[in-house]
Amino acid sequence: MPAGPSDHDFYNELAFYTLELRDPEFIHQHMVDVFAVQHAGPDSKPIAIVFGLIGLYLYLEKKFTGRQVQRAHMQLARHRRQWIAPTIPQQSANIGIGDVLAAAPGPERHAIIRRWCQAVWNDWQHCRSQIAALAQHELNIQPD
Q1: Is 53 in contact with 94 (CB distance < 8 Å)?
Q2: What angle (nearest 5°) sits at the alpha carbon of residue 18, between those of residues 16 and 24?
Q3: Average pLDDT of the chain?
Q4: Which of 11, 36, 128, 140 could pair with 52 in a Cys bridge, judged by C-beta atoms 3.0 to 4.6 Å apart?
Q5: 8 Å CB contact between 91 and 128
Q6: How many Å apart are CA 41 and CA 101, to the nearest integer?
């Protein structure tokens, strides 16, 4: 029996969808960040995890658009440094990329992308203060 599409296949499909939108909010950045964080594992690059977590923090807690998150990532990338990823938690988010693609394109899909981001961010609350401090130090984003 042939295997179904993998999460990476779904990622490519969703990336095509979000890039094709050419929206000023640039929702594509959020799906890139949440996918990297949700699929973090021992072989993940620390920069991917840290940048993804900062992206989720800025989006969900600081109300940044995807374009603003993208600019923050570019600013972080200017400072070459060794990024240290937080401990990877047990992933318990009940939303994944397949759920996003199952939603109707448009507002319904965009809403589930946000819920996906929130569910994954909830899994990483053990490092929220570390990510907020990093955003303050590197990007001058004041914590609440």
Answers
A1: no
A2: 140
A3: 94
A4: 36
A5: no
A6: 23
